[in-house]
Amino acid sequence: xxxxxxxxxxxxxxxxxxxAKTILDDVSLSLRPGESLMVIGPNGSGKTTLLYALLGLVPxxxxxxxxxxxxxxxxxxxxxxxxxxxxxQLPERPAGFSAFEYVLTARYARRRxxxxxxxxxxxxxxxxxxxxxxxxFTHRPLASLSGGELQKIMxxxxxxxxxxxxLLDEPAAFLxxxxxxxxxxxxxxxxLERNLSVxxxxxxxxxxxxxxxxxxxxxxxxxxxxxxxSDLPEKQNLLESLYDTAFDLIPAGSGKWxxxxxxxxxxxxxx
Amino acid sequence: MRxxxxxxxIAVAVLVITPWWGIEKLAWNDIKDxxxxxxxxxxxWHIRIPRTLTxxxxxxxxxTAGMAFQAFFRNPxxxxxxxxxxxxxxxxxxxxxxxxxxxxxxxxxxxxxxxxLGAITCTALLYGLIRLRGGFSVPAxxxxxxxxxxxxxxxxxxxxxxxxxxxxxxxxxxxxxGVGMVGYDTLVIMVPAVAIGVGVLGYLSDELDLLSAGELxxxxxxxxxxxxxxxxxxxxxxMIGVVVSVCGPIxxxxxxxxxxxxxxxxxxxxxxxxxxxxxGGILLTLCDTVAxxxxxxxxxxxxxxxxxxxxxxFLFLIITGRTADRVTxx
Lengths: 271, 330
Prior knowledge:
The complex is a heterodimer of chains A (271) and B (330).
Chain A: E1 9-18, E2 21-31, E3 36-40, H1 47-54, E4 62-67, E5 70-71, H2 77-83, E6 84-87, H3 99-105, H4 119-131, H5 147-160, E7 165-169, H6 177-194, E8 197-201, H7 206-210, E9 214-219, E10 222-228, H8 232-243, E11 247-253, E12 256-261, H9 266-270
Parallel strand pairs in A: 3-8, 3-9, 6-7, 7-8
Antiparallel strand pairs in A: 1-2, 1-4, 4-5, 9-10, 11-12
Helix pairs in contact in A: 3-5, 4-5
Chain B: H1 2-17, H2 39-73, H3 85-99, H4 110-133, H5 138-161, H6 165-175, H7 184-203, H8 205-213, H9 215-220, H10 225-247, H11 253-265, H12 269-293, H13 302-319
């Protein structure tokens, strides 16, 4: 019998505050290679701050974040970038760079220090762009890309960084259905093929529930529940209190359920 | 690589040809007199050559410092000049002239040291303001620079009014920006400042790429942003302090050259920085040649020429919306 793999990224009872306001309180999680975690919760519940805390970008008031078994503060930024890549929700859109030049900057933590980006780095950037199916955009300026195209280039950059962990902040937000499907499928493929760990913030509840994914539900900075939700009807109340809104469950066959917010009957209300 | 060779060739040509231009016509035989025993030899070797080299070095510094600021503030209009850092250096340098502070450690001219102190104080102040607000919009950033420049200009005026007539004229002439009053002694400090400054900025090309992509992006890709910021501030302040203490504040080189180079050579700093350094040198050397010949026998300060060309260029950037109106994060 082999021992279970050690968590590559872990946080224990962390609290993050900004001034007098507590943004995250007593949140814990642990992520082993190949595992994925979906972070859900209403707007302003601290999901993005959790990713920042995992990346060591915000000071932690109490508790600790461990990366490869070592406190995150003991890692240099360069070393963190060799473990964690991050895809922001609303990326800063750098003027002037082509898609390729932008993806190449993701190789910063892997480059040879004096020689700059090597042929190997360029090939890795090209391969990452090809993986996202964006080859024809390689030399297009970033400024000319649509929202969906830009998201894919951001994902390509995260892939090019060649880290064991991907942190994705609503990677499919604002995208049309085709781009949503493509991005989600690609992330899942990467996880399975390369044994990557994934932390993903999402507002789409069907993706985690249909896949029995690990969940972390945040409300007002606290953990409302954690783990897999296999029996959705039992958890309906919990979800309704998480989002403060009613949900409809629609049978999806083989004991699974689709979930969608329940819209009030407007005609009823106007009467 | 070929582009760098071509631009280097142009730079060498400019450095070789421009000293021949001037009020005094020179013949080939005149310049054989290296020790300056004849008037013509003296003019060529002890006035025009150091002046040309100073203009070239100053141009390189102004252009590369502008390029670094544009990456750092993510704004093509940001330069040490537009953000008031040059004025800070000017006040520092003017202070040391006014107070008559002698050279430090024998070799370091006090104007350069105080220029550096003025520049770094201003940079720290500006950066502090940005952090305090948690980010500045582009107009707010530029207006802050304008406000800083106004304040510092007033301090300069006070220094000037309280000086003797002789010092006052010297300060005024120097504040207009020029490379007229130089000899080899100024080059002794200029050349190392250029070499170190351009070297450091060149070494940080990949970091400048990432900073121009955004501070958050830079950090998650592995850049130790606060450390790089400190190095950038220190280096740029050193470069600007030295150049302003010698030439006074010269504007617009830091906008025109990086912008033109980006249009031609792209945005990657590894390719960009040698071309910007050479381009800045070429532009300021040519401007200085115009400044000292166009109204001969009178001489214009070179700052007047760069402002006359650069002002419209600056307006063009604003009007065509090439300023990429976005929020900068501190």
